[in-house]
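Please fill in the sequence for the structure shown.

STRUCTURE ENCODING:
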């Protein structure tokens, strides 16, 4: 279920064939709990230990912040889940983040190099690591493409 960010203060008219202000203000059913929406996506470049092209993620109405380097091989993208949920969902629901991460390298990555992304609190945590999942920086310049999704869940 979703709701509009803006609430109308107007009263309903007598013509019930028209969309009424109370219809606008009401909760909207988009599907079921677990429905997934795209929150935003972005591309940035990692070169060794440097995040060389951090950009703000488009989409999501300003709910997604700037990517930052947390530690060797680890990056975070903050998502303002409480505000996003308050703006879009009725009381009692929130969002659970999901991420799809693709890494494109400008050269051959070290054998066994792997990557993953998932929710960590109110952010997407991106990890680049060796075959044992020890966080390591890539040995060549890499483009990271992240698609952030949000699933509706009970709060």
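FILLED IN BY: designer on duty
SEQUENCE:
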């Amino acid at each position: 279920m979703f709701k509009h960010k803006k609430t109308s203060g107007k009263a309903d008219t007598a013509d019930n064939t028209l969309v009424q202000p109370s219809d606008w203000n009401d909760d909207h059913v988009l599907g079921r709990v677990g429905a997934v929406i795209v929150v935003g996506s972005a591309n940035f470049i990692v070169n060794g230990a440097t995040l060389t092209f951090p950009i703000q993620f488009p989409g999501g109405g300003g709910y997604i912040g700037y990517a930052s380097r947390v530690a060797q091989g680890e990056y975070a993208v903050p998502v303002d889940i409480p505000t996003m949920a308050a703006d879009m969902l009725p009381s009692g629901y929130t969002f659970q983040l999901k991420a799809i991460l693709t890494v494109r390298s400008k050269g051959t990555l070290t054998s066994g190099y792997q990557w993953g992304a998932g929710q960590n609190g109110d952010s997407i945590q991106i990890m680049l690591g060796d075959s044992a999942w020890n966080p390591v920086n890539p040995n060549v310049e890499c483009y990271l493409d992240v698609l952030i999704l949000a699933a509706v869940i009970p709060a």
